[in-house]
């Protein structure tokens, strides 16, 4: 490593008079992977948007190759060699991969029409160059999120990007896909491309980054060489204190607990088959397995969001078969889906509105909605989940202006506030920072203590192991194991989830 390619010095940026960035320093060397770490709302995406020409900073200096520059808009940033893969995917879904790669710089035939053959050929080359195995004339909407992300990377690099920013690239990738992405990062490094990498997954930072810069509440905290630090130190820098014990779980005696939900031989052809389990009041039942094993689909069937061909579902002893989620919610089942970005946040409305949206029926006093009850619920969840914005009263802020992780917390809070009999959580801590994780575990624990039956689908084995009473392991649509709390360890779960034939 050596030459500094990018310097950002004392960058400040405010929204409505309040600082989201209050003086950030960041430097990047050629061929370096530099991680940017900070809690939800710390200012990571905002800093990146300043670099990408989306926001104009209030003050501060940006230097590229030692030259002071001003970045005027997105295409100016591209021309300066900066390529950004944002937290939200911005490809056009109804165009092909090749069309997306050449959007705005279409290759023309001599008759002035778009030369699709040449577009596809060049796109194919670009994909192959980075070892991405996707056909150029595939429609983007038919790609998985991971594949879309790969296409975004290919696109960013193809503008002759010397600085590539990845804002939480792995939050929805499976393990294999993460490995593929890391392969691409290695290739880019070898080409002396520099990478800014944002992720809440500590183990990734340790695998691929050379240095880590930590920011907290919009302020610069420090920069460390990855090889000279450890997770505890980084977390302490990030949250400003040492975290106590991470998992809070008071186990209930389930010996006499009533069964809240029982599923018998549930089958959804081509997706999963013959799934049977029960979850009791006060129990947390985990669902482990690889991404794509069919766990989310099982939950969707229970919730009335997907059709199934056979099997029986009993809720509090009574057979049910929901054909829409509304029926399931009315009967007392809640599901917080995996893809919370798509999940009904009214972005133009306030945080408070969104938090109470789904549970509003329970705040009715006689005929009117009790503002006091609403406010209590809002206060509880904004406290509990650390929902943060650059404003004093978060509940009055537009949900759309919150950081990615904070938006996820609102969706989670909205569902937790319903307090259903059975609560299904699909990857509840994806995309949220360590502090919020801790708080989410404590809220889940409290719900279980109050007698709610909780199902937790998670790919994070530590949270499965430390939070669940029992764990059902799914492999390729089949149940391969049901493990009790004493039997839970990573190797055993992985063996059931991915191992050979038993
Ligand atoms: N357009 C905007 N208007 C008002 N406030 C904003 C705007 N964009 C960001 N903010 C605020 O700036 C702060 C930093 O947000 P940012 O998105 O940079 O956080 P982040 O570090 O990327 O968090 P996460 O890990 O959750 O993605 C947040 O408090 C957010 O509410
Ligand atoms: Mg962000």
Automatic annotation (TrEMBL):
Tagged with keyword Translocase: yes
CDD domains (UniProt xref): ABC_Carb_Monos_I, ABC_Carb_Monos_II
Domain of life: Bacteria
Primary location recorded for the protein, binned into one broad class: membrane
InterPro entries for the chain: AAA+_ATPase, ABC_carbohydrate_import_ATPase, ABC_transporter-like_ATP-bd, ABC_transporter-like_CS, P-loop_NTPase
Membrane topology: Peripheral membrane protein
Cited Pfam families: ABC_tran (PF00005)
Keywords of the record: ATP-binding, Cell membrane, Membrane, Nucleotide-binding, Repeat, Sugar transport, Translocase, Transport
Compartment annotation: Cell membrane
Keyword check for Ubl conjugation: no
A GO molecular-function descriptor: ATP binding
The ABC transporter domain, residue ranges: 6-242, 249-501
Gene Ontology cellular component annotations, sorted alphabetically: plasma membrane
Protein name: D-xylose ABC transporter ATP-binding protein
Protein source organism: Clostridium fessum
């Amino acid at each position: 490593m050596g030459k500094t390619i990018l310097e950002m010095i004392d960058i400040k940026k405010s929204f409505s008079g309040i600082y989201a960035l209050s003086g950030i320093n960041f430097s990047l060397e050629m061929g370096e992977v530099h991680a940017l770490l900070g809690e939800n709302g710390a200012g990571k995406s905002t800093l990146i948007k300043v670099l990408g020409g989306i926001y104009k900073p209030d003050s501060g200096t940006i230097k590229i190759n030692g030259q002071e520059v001003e970045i005027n808009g997105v295409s100016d940033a591209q021309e300066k060699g900066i390529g950004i893969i944002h937290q939200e995917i911005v490809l056009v879904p109804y165009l092909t991969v090749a069309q997306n790669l050449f959007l705005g710089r279409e290759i023309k035939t001599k008759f002035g029409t778009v030369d699709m053959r040449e577009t596809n050929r060049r796109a194919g080359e670009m994909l192959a160059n980075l070892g991405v195995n996707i056909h150029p004339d595939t429609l983007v909407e038919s790609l998985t999120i991971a594949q879309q992300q790969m296409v975004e990377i290919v696109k960013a690099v193809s503008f002759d990007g010397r600085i590539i920013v990845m804002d939480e690239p792995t939050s929805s990738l499976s393990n294999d896909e993460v490995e593929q992405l890391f392969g691409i990062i290695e290739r880019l490094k070898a080409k002396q491309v520099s990478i800014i990498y944002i992720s809440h997954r500590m183990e990734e930072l340790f695998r691929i980054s050379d240095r880590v810069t930590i920011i907290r509440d919009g302020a610069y905290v420090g920069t460390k060489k990855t090889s000279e630090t450890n997770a505890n130190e980084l977390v302490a820098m990030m949250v400003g204190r040492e975290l106590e014990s991470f998992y809070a779980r008071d186990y209930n005696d389930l010996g006499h607990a009533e069964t809240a939900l029982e599923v018998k031989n549930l089958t959804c052809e081509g997706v999963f088959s013959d799934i049977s389990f029960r979850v009791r009041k006060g129990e947390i039942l985990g669902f482990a397995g690889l991404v794509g094993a069919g766990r989310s689909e099982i939950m969707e069937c229970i919730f009335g969001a997907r059709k199934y061909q056979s099997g029986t579902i009993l809720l509090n002893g009574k057979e049910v078969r929901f054909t829409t989620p509304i029926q399931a919610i009315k009967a007392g089942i809640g599901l917080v889906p995996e893809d919370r970005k798509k999940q009904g946040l009214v972005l133009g409305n306030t945080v408070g509105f969104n938090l109470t949206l789904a549970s509003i029926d329970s705040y009715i006093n006689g005929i009117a909605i009790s503002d006091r009850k609403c406010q209590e619920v809002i206060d509880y969840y904004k406290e509990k989940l650390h929902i943060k914005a650059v404003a004093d009263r978060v509940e009055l802020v537009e949900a759309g202006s919150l950081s990615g992780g904070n938006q996820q917390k609102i969706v989670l809070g909205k569902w937790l506030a319903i307090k259903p009999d059975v609560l299904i959580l699909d990857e509840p801590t994806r995309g949220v920072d360590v502090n919020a994780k801790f708080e989410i575990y404590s809220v889940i624990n409290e719900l279980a203590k109050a007698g709610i039956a909780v199902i937790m689908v998670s790919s994070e084995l530590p949270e499965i192991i430390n939070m669940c009473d029992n764990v059902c392991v799914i492999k390729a649509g089949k149940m391969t194991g049901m493990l009790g709390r004493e039997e839970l360890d990573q190797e055993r779960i992985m063996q059931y989830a991915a191992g050979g034939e038993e």
